[in-house]
Design goal:
53% helix, Glutaredoxin, globular, 4-stranded mixed beta sheet
């Protein structure tokens, strides 16, 4: 009986040691991650609704193409992302107020340390919808400005 008790105590001690070691290592890993400087990211959001006209599809297509053409390295390393979002889907309604949306929009937002620090609505995309090169250059110029702020 005494051997069984000792065995149970040894097993319990080992398990507690493993759990404590695991918790310690987890806390150390979190501390290391928190100490890494966040260089920030730029997110290019394209906000649309359920109904999408030719112009809405074109703005999304041109924005995606311009970003992929001029910023492949930033997309690859996570410094830049392109995210189309349907604001009519449940849970996305807050974007209307967050970015003061009144129509389909291309928004650039800078995030540092998990918090948004600034954003801009690229309203001129509507002016360039019939001129792909001008559209691309506009998006390129604005994204470059925001990437420089990182």
């Amino acid at each position: 009986m005494m051997k069984k008790i000792h065995l149970v105590i040894i097993i319990a001690a080992c398990c507690c040691g493993l759990v404590a070691n695991s918790l310690f290592n987890s806390a150390r890993a979190e501390t290391r991650e928190e100490q890494k400087p966040d260089k920030g990211t730029v997110v290019a959001y394209y906000f649309h609704g359920n109904f999408r006209c030719y112009s809405c599809f074109t703005i999304e297509q041109y924005a995606k193409e311009a970003i992929e053409k001029y910023f492949p390295e930033q997309l690859k390393n996570g410094r830049l992302s392109f995210q189309p979002i349907n604001i009519e889907e449940k849970g996305n309604e807050h974007f209307i107020q967050d970015y003061q949306l009144y129509t389909r929009s291309l928004i650039l937002a800078v995030f540092k340390n998990g918090k948004q620090v600034k954003w801009i609505n690229l309203e001129k995309v509507w002016n360039y919808i019939r001129d792909r090169d001008a559209f691309y250059n506009y998006v390129k110029t604005e994204v470059e400005k925001y990437l420089k702020d990182l």
